[in-house]
Write a structure and sequence with these properties.
Chain lengths: 292, 236
Amino acid sequence: MVFFSYVISGISLGSVYAIIALGYTMVYGIAKMLNFAHGDVIMVGGYISFCAISYLSLPPLVAVLLAMAVCTVLGVVIEGLAYRPLRQAGSLAVLITAIGVSYFLQNAAQLIWGVTPKIYTSVASFPLPEGLSSLGLTSEALVTIVSCIVIMLALTAFVNRTKMGKAMRACSEDKGAAQLMGINVNQAISMTFAIGSALAAIAGVLLCSSYTTLFPTTGSMPGIKAFTAAVFGGIGSIPGAFVGGLLLGIIESMAKAYISTDLANAIVFAVLIVVLLVKPTGLLGRYVPEKV
Amino acid sequence: MEPILSVENINVYYGSIHAIKGISFDVRQGEIVTLIGANGAGKSTTLNTISGLLRSRTGSITFQGEKLGHVPAHKIVSKGLALVPEGRRVFLQMTVEENLEMGAFTQNSSTIPESLEQVYTQFPRLKERRRQIAGTLSGGEQQMLAMGRALMSRPKLMMLDEPSMGLAPILVEQIFEIIRSLHAAGSTILLVEQNAQAALSVASRGYVLETGRIVTSGTGKELLASPDIKKAYLGG
């Protein structure tokens, strides 16, 4: 029974990683850049929903939607102001800028909300049937897992079935050819940042609901873990982010339970290194044969 | 007759390299015009400049009376200009049909089924493979897909960049057969080729490029018969 509860907490943690990893992987897939400020957008989502609930007494669902809206705008603004001018620049310049944006967001949050951790009221707290809670399942874990599955399905349908989603895939393969089709590449990149950031807001709310403290660097570690998950699953691949996130969460939870809490992070990253040594493209990283 | 496309005195640079040095030419409705020349003569650069992927520092490109100099690349296709790029550049991870849908990105989605039907009639092979990932197609099939994808935008002028590159002789023949039939169906075509023999035999007119300049022009027949051209491009 205890084992089950570790599995469940691993899946729940992994679901949050997966939701964050989707943002990393989509942005990487299209803009070919690592947006290291993505983790801090999670933190902003956490603070916005916190303020909406604690100061404005808005209902949880409205708070979540507000956080999503603010983060969507934030993501698009970050892309437009910080990354778009560097479109022709080397990838190192973009990477350093992303790290700069990350520090900027953390410091801005410190100025606005202070360094004292806020105690977050869970937005997903409700009583579960006896049978479920005796397995170690919490309402937060349940909501997190269900959200992750719904997001995953919705996103897959979006990129495979809608015109905009297909255009985004075309951009991720060949921006020049996509432009020849009449696709506005800048618009597709903005769209990717908008979606990724809205997902980051959801991840922020879910993360804070499970772990209940909120401070300006709340997003850093989950952000890096989710980036790891994206690489683990195969960066650029949406199912890869899902699988990578879940596995990473379970490994971390098991390592904490059975090996050592202190070593859990080291174990997670060691697993990543082993996977990359064996399969450099990540678990689901695709290799498409090119015929010429 | 008023040209559908006229290129006047364009100069294109890659950094400090002067790739196109004052090229002028035009294409009239219903023609096949070809630009021939050796590797590095500036043929692809010219097409990429017309498509807006590259910019000319001087001169003008006029398509159906409208200057294209400042029109962004993604708005060119809706003007009726489609480029089948060098190396085909189909979306390898998307299916054949998705590639074709992307070709019709700027079109009203209600017109897509009809355009698809037309492309499938022209290229029955693509219909057989419509659910297949484009990366699994052969080189010749990918070329057909790239051409079909361009046709999906219902272009008034179709530009083909080295459609025969890397294909087996029998496929090259097939591609030129398709170019002839597109022309017969009313398409206006600007064709860039290294295979000068094949290009000149389908072309109404041709221009010969050497290191960024047009050195000769004439009808396809004239150029095929010219001793200089024979010596330089047709293997004696």
